[in-house]
Amino acid sequence: MRRSDRADHAQHTGSREAGTYDTILIIRLIIASVIFAVSLIINTLPDLVSVLMMVVSAIVAGYDIVLDALQCVSERDFFSTPLIVVIVTVLSYIIGFGYEGAALVILYQIGLLLIAYAEERTRRSALELLQYQDESTVNRITELILRDGAGSMNIESVMGGSAGTVLKYAMIFSVVYAVALPLLTNYSFRVSLHRAMTIVLIATPMSVVISMPLTGIIGMCFSARHGVVFESAALMETTADTDIAVFDNAGVFCDENPKLTDLSSDMIDDNTFLTFAAHALYYSNQPVARAVAGVYTKDYRLDVISNFVDIPGYGVEVDIGNAHVVLATRELFVGRGVKLPPDKVEDGQVFFMTVAGRYVGRIVINSQLNVEADELVVGLREAGVSRCVLLTEDGNAESRRLAEEMDFSEVYGECDTEKKLRVVSELKTSAKGSVLFVYASGVETHSAADVDIRVNRRGKYADVLVSPEYLANLPFAVQICRRMREIAIENAVFAFVVKTILVFLSIIGYCNIWFAIFIDMVAAVATILNSIRVTSESLISMFMYKTGQR
């Protein structure tokens, strides 16, 4: 939100956190209200005294609004709410509507107090959503929402810009209206100017965008309650438009470090076979290398390793001493015309080893599937994500098997880190909406995706952190993002509708200045309180679901 939309509001809110400014402001408003009431009730007062009492009432209640207005002028922000309030108040006194000018200032300040109170209550409700989360998550999300702009969304800029444009056109219309009404009707310039000022006051954008940062904060807290921590509300807004979700298999669906479950050789003893395998895989970062490294406890002799070739998804080829060693999947050996014994393994991936072209044995690794991710792809499709893509380090045959087992329709095998980032970039260029990249580790930079999601409690370059035990909640987090945006739009539309009705009533003479500011402030408070509905199910979605069921 621009300073012109909430400069005074931000100042008051910040001061009230100390508790002193609230008390002083309330006392000022009580004194101003008493003076205002006396000037209205006692009819025997001279007109000049009555006007002076109304001026004093306005000064007591709103001298700080004047200071804000002067600061806005110094910043060349001529469409700020405080400046418009001050101008309308002064003009009200000039044209003989002093009581409305005084009421405007008092009600405006009361409205700011109510808005601040509603914001405080809503923020408290947002943090209460985290009461069942662990301390580290609570501390992290608290730190995030206290950061400037954490709750801001792109839609806030769009709505704020639109409201600013509406205000400019409203001013032009008001000038034309103030001049034309007396010329075309029997109304005086005093009446037409009064109505025109009311229209300009109504057109100020504060109530349209005031609730949006709170809507974003509630969305962040509600998502964090389910173990999905977004860095900002803007990222949640981006996630709401997800078209493609790209998943790195390692650490997300399968163990990042698979287990070595079997090792057998008819040619050499197991220790020698394991030593050959460990040295052959030393420079590789494929899953089979991590599995072998996890069980090999002896020292490596790097001087015997030469001519290493990594074949992503299949295995490795290397010289160990004077022997040429190939450790790879059956798929690679079949392509080279090498005959191997038949597989007898039902669970796991088999890698065969040849030394100097002769088969010597095999190893079997197994990656335990993450049970938290069983329904992940199905859930994302139900949440509206059109494409789910799997990236694996395995060969094409194993990759297709994994994709089928986990319900992916698209899969890319033989992926090292560089290829994963390249695939994400290519998918981004063809995406109609946002692209999510979900990974566990191995990526130490931002990808080309719109949102990088790391399945971990920490991540330097990640936009979103998902605790592994909460991975199944990712589809629900996408729904929260869409619900958050829906509420933000709902609040903006509501405020615009209220303003439209007030403008119409002002044109026909059924809305004066104090009534306009009162209803506008009530609308602002209503949108703030409505923000908590991010945590409830969308009535629109429920209606569409029930209609579809029929």
Number of strands: 13
Strand line-up of the largest beta sheet? 1-13-12-11-2-9-10
Share of helical residues: 55-70%
Give the count of helical stretches. 20
Estimated radius of gyration: 33 Å
Strand content: 5-15%
Largest sheet, strands/sense/barrel: 7 strands, mixed
Which blocks of ≥5 consecutive residues have pLDDT under 50?
A: 1-20, 542-550
Shape: elongated
Mean pLDDT: 85
Task: Assign the structural class, choosing from mainly alpha, mainly beta, alpha/beta, alpha+beta, or little secondary structure.
Answer: alpha/beta
Distance between the termini: 43 Å
Q: So what's the oligomer here? A: single chain
Sum this structure up briefly.
The protein has 550 residues and is of the alpha/beta class. The chain has 20 helices and 13 strands. Helix 2 runs antiparallel to helix 3, helix 5 packs parallel to helix 19 and helix 7 runs antiparallel to helix 8.
